[in-house]
Structures are given as structure tokens and as C-alpha cells.
Amino acid sequence: MLVLSRKRDESILIGDDVEITVIDVRGDTVKLGVSAPKSVAVYRKEVYEAIQRENIAAAQSAGQDLTSLAKALRERRRRPEPDEPAS
Fold it and tell me: How many Å is the Cα radius of gyration of the chain?
């Protein structure tokens, strides 16, 4: 882990296009500003982790849904189709 000291209004750069600026420091709280291209997702860590948990849960749920659907389709194929009414 790289550890840097910065004062208010000082920045660090990550690569060529991400800049993190110290906006304010009050007690044990630091307010940061992040400038990054729209193609770079920027999240607070706890929000990112929550998104990851939800994505995993959704993927598992989708797998279960597909298994249930496949089972229902197999069962439907086994049942004889009702005769078409005569015209």
C-alpha cells in the first residue's frame, strides 16, 4: 500500500486521468474529490461491496430460475398435447 500525505487542496494522480484532491479535513474526517472519466466507475468501498453481493445473489437466483424453467419445459414435453378441435 502506498501511503501519501496531502494537505487541503493538494492532489494525487492515478494514471493519466484520475485525480484525487483533498477538499477538506475536519477532525478524523477527510473530504475527497475524485475527477475521473465517465468510463471509470468510482464507488465508496462499502457501496461497491454491497453491489458485488447483490450481483452474486442475482446470478445464483438466475441459475435457479433457469433450472426450474428447464424442468418445467421437460415436463411439458412429456405430456401429450390436447387434440386440435376439428374444423
Answer: 27
Question: Is 0.70 surpassed by the pTM of this model?
Answer: no
Please, which residues have CB within 8 angstroms of residue 1's CB and are 6 or more apart in sequence? none
Tens of pLDDT along 1-50? 999 999 999 999 999 999 999 999 999 999 999 999 999 999 999 999 99
Q: What angle do CA 1, 25, 19 make, to 5 degrees?
A: 50
Distance CA 51, CA 47 (A): 6
Local structure of residue 30 (DSSP, 8 states): E
Q: Please give the angle made by the CA atoms of 40, 47 and 53, to the nearest 5 degrees.
A: 105
